[in-house]
Fold this protein.
Amino acid sequence: MSVIWNPWHGCTKISDGCKNCYVYRRDEKYDLDSSVPYKTQSFDLPVKKNRNGAYKIESGETVFACMTSDFFLDAADPWRGRAWGYIKERSDLNFFIITKRISRYEVCLPEDIGEGYENVTICSTCENQKRTDERLPLLLSFPIKHRMIIHEPMLERINIEKYLETGKIEQVTCGGESGPAARDCNYDWVLYTREQCLRYNVPFYFKQTGANFVKDGRRYSVPRKFQHSQARKAGINT
């Protein structure tokens, strides 16, 4: 079981992977401005307790942080220190932080980070080769205990061999783009990434096809509700 923790909401578009951002698409439906981030009511969710004094999130759970924003968003700098404090307090939880702002990691750290918190996995998104070669050297160089690569949305064939051969990457995830303006995701790109992972014995996960999926030269329009299940049916996860 996993828990979503969104201590703040909102984002600013900074890369190729943001063209069809879920945060912006959802907020536009309600006439909200996603470019003005705000702290949410669930800011302190990891440390909230029930009437008996026990934590509401049970020990051992996986917590995905900032799924409607970015943990390293500059606008969240005043709030992040407390958020790190919650993460440290709940050393019994496994936190996954997915970011396209890995370049800000080093300036956003608590003083006692050491070689990285044992209960935190940092997942850098890399939607194309350009972003991959910008971000992954940083992911590898910073004090981080657990590292993952996420090609989502995957926008082209991407070579990550030199990063996998370091032995520092624990998993790679691929996924297509959703939404009405979704760009194509080609199955050949996904398989190429999987082949690289197999060579270096790195776990691989195909998360979703995306709305526009290309396989064997044919383009398929996949409804949102089937994008994850169709990816699972491919049977290529390791």
The longest strand covers residues 169-175. The chain has two domains: 1-122, 152-238. Helices lie at 22-29, 77-89, 129-141, 161-164, 187-199, 224-233. The radius of gyration is 18 Å.
